[in-house]
Specification:
By secondary structure, this protein is α/β, with parallel strands linked by helices. About 40% of the residues lie in helices and about 15% in strands. α13 packs across α14. The radius of gyration is 22 Å and the shape is globular.
Amino acid sequence: MNAPLTNHEFIERDQAHLIHPLHHDPAHAHGKVWVRGEGSYLIDADGNRYIDGLSCLWNVSCGHGRKELAEAAYAQMQQLAFCSSYNGSTNPPAIELAERLADICYPSINNFYFTSGGGESTDSNFKVARFYWKAKGKPDKTKVISRLWGYHGVTFAAMCATGIAPYWAAFEPRIPGFSHIPAPDPYHYPAPDDGTSPGVAMANELEKEILKQGPQTVAMFIAEPVQGAGGVIVPPDDYFPRIREICDQYEVLLVADEVITAFGRTGKLFALEHYGVEPDLVQFAKSITSGYVPLGGIGISDEIVATIRASDKPWMHAYTYSGHPTTCAVGLATLDFIAREDLPAQAAEKGAYLLERLHAELDGHPQVGNVRGKGMMCAVELVEDKATRAWYPPEWGVGPKMTKALIEHGIFTRMRNEVVCIAPPLTTERDTLDDYVAGVRGAIVDVFGE
């Protein structure tokens, strides 16, 4: 019997034929080859075991190795692996998943369109918004406002809404009609000097941008309830209620990008529930199948659906895999798991514990500027100067140094350069969370000293 290939041997084969997301050969020369997942852990080809510190990409909420999710895919594949949803065709898993989502989503959202992931969902909402405003006799309302540090995917249109500049540089010029306002970051946003609360002041940035662009031209504002890839930015509680008021005042659709936050990650099934706000459109992916198969979608408000249905023109938007029966079957099994295990409650309770432990272990370190989180989404922001909140210069390499140190302490996650992103599976046990906190502290000490 041949010996199993080592991580290094796999990487050599990989580099000969594979192009990766965010491809950059020097950064991938020491990549990990994952061969197994168990609960909250990933195992590489050399047998090393790591805490899955970001639920892979914020999506493996149920943890690895859930047989019921694999069995749901197998059973559906045996019966009907795939069929098209074009020309009115449909299938029972897609119908049932839409019904289930209507039961648990925001009260005014009862209709759903399925995609293969988050970027497709973003593009789908752009098209819904444009179709809607044209049907309402306002064809000039086409512009999209989003936020700096917001992440909405990297299809070409979605990338234009994503507010993280390194994703743009190689692909300029971007599509016209996209603009960004500051992130609602309580740590960095200047304190208002007029008595306005910080949350309302941050939200008022949207009103300024709508007026700058011209309200008659703005179709939608898209925002993550908690910004994820941009560094787990949690807005003040009064931010989204004011955002909703502004959108209503200027006839701008509010789109909740819940690709990361939906299905329990923040302690609620859908994260705008924390703020008592309903969006006009919602998009989801990732945890709808716990990452076991690709599935995403959008939820559309009753008012927008009524406008679409009343139009004499078809909504000319389609994906081959929309309503894929196998992925929808896994989605149903995942919703069963979420309900049975009460993952939102687990995320709320464990997330509070995780945040408490991070504060206790890290607040006193001179390079830890801010520890924050909501549910099982936390972050540790590292700074050069705690008084000024200034970051180290990019050439210092906080991100690569911390990534290497975290791996050495048994944690695999992602950095937003100076921010450690922390989002393990919602099923993670407390002793693993303790190990996670200890590993983050150890990595910080390795890189910056005591």
